[in-house]
Structure formats: structure tokens, C-alpha cells
Amino acid sequence: xxxxxxxxxxxxxxxxxxxxxxxxxxxxxxxxxxxxxxxxxxxxxxxxxxxxxxxxxxxxxxxxxxxxxxxxxxxxxxxxxxxxxxxxxxxxxxxxxxxxxxxxxxxxxxxxxxxxxxxxxxxxxxxxxxxxxxxxxxxxxxxxxxxxxxxxxxxxxxxxxxxxxxxxxxxxxxxxxxxxxxxxxxxxxxxxxxxxxxxxxxxxxxxxxxxxxxxxxxxxxxxxxxxxxxxxxxxxxxxxxxxxxxxxxxxxxxxxxxxxxxxxxxxxxxxxxxxxxxxxxxxxxxxxxxxxxxxxxxxxxxxxxxxxxxxxxxxxxxxxxxxxxxxxxxxxxxxxxxxxxxxxxxxxxxxxxxxxxxxxxxxxxxxxxxxxxxxxxxxxxxxxxxxxxxxxxxxxxxxxxxxxxxxxxxxxxxxxxxxxxxxxxxxxxxxxxxxxxxxxxxxxxxxxxxxxxxxxxxxxxxxxxxxxxxxxxxxxxxxxxxxxxxxxxxxxxxxxxxxxxxxxxxxxxxxxxxxxxxxxxxxxxxxxxxxxxxxxxxxxxxxxxxxxxxxxxxxxxxxxxxxxxxxxxxxxxxxxxxxxxxxxxxxxxxxxxxxxxxxxxxxxxxxxxxxxxxxxxxxxxxxxxxxxxxxxxxxxxxxxxxxxxxxxxxxxxxxxxxxxxxxxxxxxxxxxxxxxxxxxxxxxxxxxxxxxxxxxxxxxxxxxxxxxxxxxxxxxxxxxxxxxxxxxxxxxxxxxxxxxxxxxxxxxxxxxxxxxxxxxxxxxxxxxxxxxxxxxxxxxxxxxxxxxxxxxxxxxxxxxxxxxxxxxxxxxxxxxxxxxxxxxxxxxxxxxxxxxxxxxxxx
Amino acid sequence: xxxxxxxxxxxxxxxxxxxxxxxxxxxxxxxxxxxxxxxxxxxxxxxxxxxxxxxxxxxxxxxxxxxxxxxxxxxxxxxxxxxxxxxxxxxxxxxxxxxxxxxxxxxxxxxxxxxxxxxxxxxxxxxxxxxxxxxxxxxxxxxxxxxxxxxxxxxxxxxxxxxxxxxxxxxxxxxxxxxxxxxxxxxxxxxxxxxxxxxxxxxxxxxxxxxxxxxxxxxxxxxxxxxxx
Lengths: 843, 229
What we know:
The complex is a heterodimer of chains A (843) and B (229). Chain A has 843 residues and is of the alpha+beta class.
């Protein structure tokens, strides 16, 4: 028989097999469906969100082009140049305190002052709907639009008056949509929108104030933006401003989406791997049921190759079916989400069919179906016709052959390569795949070993316990695959829960111990002395820190322009845009110099800079090399004189770049300060400082960390959902294993009854079996999950790891309870089977 | 005359199937004394196996009485019947019905384990040795021949020293020579334990080894030799 006729014959056989329907493939199809759905849904959502960001790019950016400066406005020459190119809009943003005039209550706000051209794209909508420019800048009074949380925090309503700096504003409405409101993980305060004239009236614009000016341009043809950007860079090479086009509208959001997509896809792939066990169990169960059929065909002359090909085609067809259903559901998700909760999503969505995502997800599904079916297919090929002459089919493991083993390895390598090559962080994907594979191997080894070790446990005298324990290590027992699938799913859940719990610890424990109570921004230089005096008189003060602050951008590293320098990925943030800088005469007590020397107190020589050790490593520089920073349009080149180790997690004031005295004193600047007071005295401290220094913005560390914690909780929910999916698939696999085992259990239950077992004896045996399985799976996953969480926290995130026994135990107990429940539900049928009718049918 | 071990009075058993109600047993009366060997002959579908099921408590009669070892099986619930079987009844099937994932030793130990025996393996091994299978105790049914499997089934049936042994076509799946070996063992064990034997067979030669024969025709019982309905 040549290849073509083998395939033709095989297709004929497949059609006959499929005439019997898809019975027995429920778990197979469901596992593939869920796994492929997870991956395609995540990918489709991400691409639809990115498409939405791109479609709304100009609205999100506020224009086709944005020029951004800190501390200063655009010079006249720049304004004229831009005005000649298209419609220009000027927006200023800063953080400030909004004050309730009646009771002096203060709230930190994200202030935005707009001109009459704003917004260039999109619309501001509010409640009530207003003509914003009429309302913000009417002749009689200054108006403001606010976000709803501002009103609730100040206990105010639309129509009330508040004060910012020296000016009073009447709240005219609540902002419902702000087209260029950057999507952020969290905000320090609600929006407070006024006109540029209103900002002028507040008196907050001081030299060095931490105010950002954004100039947005609407072009006649936005495709010319790259050309314009190049022209600007050529014309104003030393300008020191940041230019972004609509193509880079929301880089942080895009980065965050890619990151979430990567991590969740990897967990989704884990779920699919667990689902592979369901595939394996279903195929094994199906082919076990076909042994007599296969033996008969072989007796009639069918070669092993035909048997293999026929069932392989059938598996691939069913794999395609399950994967297609998963793809359809995943591709539809963005449409459904937009329809149901479109306005509540944090990112704009433009749903679409993203073929690359779907093809990759489909390939994952098919490869999983193939990898986890090949062994059973190989064994089916080896079924001997002599089976027809025996009372029972052969049980126990057999070798499927070298060709099958090699095929499995190659398919697995293709799957791993596909996962790595299609991910946005190939290094992380590689480590994740390696870790998942290691987990797979560990669990395979552990489940096989543990099952064998149950032989060594002394046989209980109670018949139910004895039978239950015996069932675990009995030939053909599904214990191995049940331990494997359930264990992997529970491990994923334990890992995610422990990582989340430790991250929560990290945030919570830092607040009372080391972090400052408040940060104060925009403290003017002429306020420093009185501020420090006021702060020192605060009751309970334990620490006061203050540094001058400026903004600057690194433009050259060791003499090489930053665009040409090699910068490690983990410190690229330092060369993206402006950074906070400072300078100091003396070394503060908690500054830890690890290389080089701190300058003397009275140093007056060439510019020196002290940078953090990780920055130096990432830049590939050391003591004696130079850094060039552009500060307000002026390049400053300083020699690196020392390296510092900084523990940012303490939230104490520190800077990645600290200059020696005599370099930046004359530049416009403000000051940042922090104080440490006991929690019960925070309110007193807040009131004292804000009353005397109304222009100073105050950030409460407690509020800040609460915000971060809430955001992490939301992100954690997403990850827990994915891990939950892995557990769900694990249970499905277990359900599949139990279901595939039905015939054996029914037969065994009948014989047990014949031999005198009561229903309680039989139920007890099955319950004991599943309880043992749940305990073993739970125990192994507690260990492996804890090790995985420790690896992620200490290895990747550099955070200390604490075991949370409560978290582990709760997760494991839930898993055990569900295992026993699932197992008993699955075996109830066996229990209820009447022996006589079974025996009559068999005889 | 000693009290009969088995006493069936006016036994009726009907089953509801796809085609409606089928009367399998129609007023069967049968009395068997302790230690007696009785063969039940009859064509296929006559109700022989159903009679055995009723005697073992695996099937509940529609009406009538089934008394075994002084216990009326029609008055006991399912668990009670299971407990009764483990102490008083051994059953051998045509298809052996061993647990394929248990070794010969484990299969034979089963009824002893259910009855709470402290050293079931010891007694099971003894039973297997008597059946000539001392070198096969750790083998799985799939590794045994048909005759060996049936001998394991016999060992399992006799290990509890039952008062009543029910055998349903025990040599039906075996060749003549192997069947002979199995039947010799069956009768040897029966004599050794003084077990009352009810043997369902369509083999007249096999039936002649029993002291008494009855014949099932269309759900009714007729004595071939001796008293009956």
C-alpha cells in the first residue's frame, strides 16, 4: 500500500468512525476549546485595544504632534514655526492642592489648564453638558470642570466654589470624557480642569515649578508628521523638548498591554498544556475502547501504518474542531466586551479579526492535540491481533516506538519555539517555557513515584481504605494522570496566590516602618527656610528630608549620544524622557556609596555626578566616565565620581543622578521634601503645612500605596483568573479521567457487590481513592508552587519571599474538596448500577 | 429429613424491557438440602441464570419466597444481601468476572477483605494453592489462560467456605479438556467443604455429575429426577 492509498483508505476509515458521533471526546474538545479560547481571547483583546489606541491616537495624544517641556513655555520662535504648520493648542499640567474655602479641607489634584483650541481631536463631555470654554473662562468668574472623585473627597457639588493657589473657581460640571486623559495604572489625584488664564490667576507658575507645557498640533495631513518631526529636530537641535507623534500616542499603555498579553498568554499556554493531559486521557480512553476493533482490522490485513494514519487524521480533525470553536469564541470576545462594557473599559477598543493571533492560537491547539495523542496512537499501531483470543486486553505501559518518541520531542520543540518566537519578550518566554517544562517533568516524576510509593504504605484493615489505596497504584489506574493534571493546575493557582500575597505584604509592611508620611512637591526656594522651621516644629516629627529638584534628560553616555549608546533593557527608563535630578553638598546619612568617593563639602570644581550602581552597570560606565544631561536646554557634562546603592522600596527621598554643588544652583528649580510623623499625627502635620504653604502639593504615602495596592489587586485578579482557568482545565482532565474509567469502575463495583461489598464499602473505597489523590496532588503542588513563587519573587522581582501557610492550605483544601466531589459524582453511576443486569448483558 | 438449605416457593420474576414486561420466572418451586449438588438444565433464555441471580440475592423477585440458610432473601435490603453473600454464597461465572487490574491473590482476597478478615492474603494464597495456582498468585488475569482464570474464580468463590455455591456455565468459555480440569476442581472443593452446589449448564454430561437435575423451560422448573414442580 503506497502513501496515497494509505491516506485515502485512512480517510475512509475516519469517516466511518466519525459516523458514531463525538461521544467520548467531550473532555478532549472542551480542554482544547478552553485553552485555545484563552490564548486567542487574550491576543484578540490586546490587538483590539492597540488598534483602538491607534485609531484614537491623535485624540489620545491631543494632536498629531506634541511638544512637551518641563518648567518653561515654548519660545516665540517655536510657536511661530508650529503655527505655520497647522492648528496649535497649548495645555499645561501640574499637581496642586484644591482647597475647600469653607473648611480649609485640601485634596491633591491633577490640574490641567487648556486654551480655547482644546481639544484638537475628540470632545470633552461633562455633566451637565457645557460649552467648556465659555464656562472655564467667563467674564464674571473662573470656572472649573472636575472628575467626580474630587467632589466626593471635598464633599462638594456642582456650583460650589473652591480655591487653587490665589484664585477661586466655581465648579461648573463633572468631566465624563476627556479624550487625551492618559490611561494610567493609577492617578495621584482627580482631574481639575481650568483655562490657561485661570492658571495664571492662581499664581502657581513660579520659576522651577513642576509644570509641564504641552503644545499640540493638528496637521492638514497627519501622515506628514514624521517629516515635520525630523525638520524640527534639525531646526531646533538643542531645544531640550520631547516630541511625540500620534504613532507614539500612548507608549506606556502599549507597553503595559504587551506585558499583560505576554504574561497572560504564557499562563494561557500553561492551561493548554494542562488541557493536553485531558486530550491524552480522552485519546487513550477512546483507543482503549477500540482495541478489539483494531485487533480485528489487523486480523483482516490492515497494516499498523494504516491504523496509525487513520486515527491520527481523526485526532487532528477533532483538534481542529475544538480549536476552531475556541478561536471563534476568542475572536468574538472584543466585540462582546465592547458591546457590553465598552464605556467602562480603561482603553479604547477597535474590535477586529487579528489573523496572526488566531493562527498562532490554532497552531498551539493543534500541536497540543498532536503531542498528547502520539503516544496512544503509537500504542494503537502496536495492538496485537492475539488480543481477540484473550479474556482481557493488555494493560500497563508499553513502548510506542522510537519514531513516535522522536515525533513527540520534535513537536514539543516546535511548540516551544512558536511560543518563544511569537512573544514580545523572548527571554522571559524562554524562561517561562523552561520553568513550565520543568514543572511538567517534576510532576510526571512525582506522580509516578508517589503512585509506586503507595505500595509501601501498610495496608489498612478497613476494606474501603484498603481498596481505595490499592486503586491508586493498580494497573491502568488514572491516578497518575489525575495527579499530574490536578497537581499542575493547583500549582499554578498556589504560585499566583503566593506571589500576590507577598506583593501585598511588601506594600503594606513598608508603610509603617520606613516610608515617609508625606511628600511635598513644588516647594519654592524662598520657602525652604520657613518650611523646614515649620516642619521641625511638627509634633512627633522623626525625620525631615529635602532636596532641590530639576528635570533633565540624559543626552550622552561616556561621550556617545544616547541614541547610539548601548543601554541595558532594565535601565532604558532612564534615557526615556526627562528625569528628576538634584544636587547636594553633603552626603545624607542614608546615602550608601559603594564605589568612588563623595565630593568634599566645599567642592567647587568641575561638575561631578553620583549615580546609582545599577544605572552605571546598565550604561556600561564606571568612575571617571561622563554623562551629559540637558537641563532646560543647556547641556551639562559631569564626571561620575561615585556609585550608590539605593533601596527604592523604602520610598525615602533619593535620586538616580545627584550632582555636585556649583552646577545647578542657578537653574530654575523647586524643592521636594518628605517628613516622617506617627500615623496619628499625620492629619495635624498635613493641616499645618498646607495652611502655611498653599502652593505646595502634598502626596500622602498611605493613599499612594493604597492606590498601588488596588491596582495590583486588579492586575492580580486577571492573573488569578488565568490560573483559575488552569485549575478548571485540571478538573476537567480529572473528570475526563474518571469518566473514561467508568466502564472499569462499573465492572469493579458489580464484582465487589457479588463478593459481598455493601454500597457504603464501595463508596468508601472510591472516596478514599480520591481523597488520597487530592492530598497527594495538594501536597506536591504546595511544595512546587511555593518554590515557583519563591523563584519569581526572589529571582525575577528581587523581593523577599514569605511562606503564607494559610493561603496554601486554603487553596489546597479547596482543590481536595473539589477532587473528592468530582470523583464521587463521576462514580455515582457505577454505584447505582444493578449487578444482575450488568452480568446478564456481559454473559 | 434435614432442613433444606435452599427453599424457593412460588417464585415469580418479571423484568421490564424495551418490548414490555417479560415474565422470566413463573412460579418456581425448589428445595435443596445441605450438601446436595443440583444441575439446572434448559435451553437458552429459559431463566436459568435468572434463577441463580435470585438465589444469590443479585436479583429481586417480583413475588414469592427465596430462603437460603434460613434467611428470606426477599426481606433484606441491598446491603444486607451483600453481607449475606460474603458469608454464605460463592458465585462462579461463565466469563470469570475477575478484576483485571488486580492480581490473582488480590482477586481471591476480595470477599475476605469485605468480611473484615485480618489476614486475607494468607487464606487467599492457601485457596490458590489448592487450585494449583501457587506459582501464579502475582499474575494479572490478562496473563492467565482461560482455565487458570476460572480456577482463580473458583478459589475466590470457595475461599469464604460458603454454604451455597452457584455456578453459571463455568466451562462455557473453555475447551473440553480445560473444562474437565475446572469441573474436577469444582467438585473436589465442593466435597471438601460440603458445599451445596447449584450448577447451571446445558452440558448433559456435566449435569450427570450432580446428584440431581432440574430443567427450566419457559420460566418453569421441572424435575428430571427427584421431586419438583
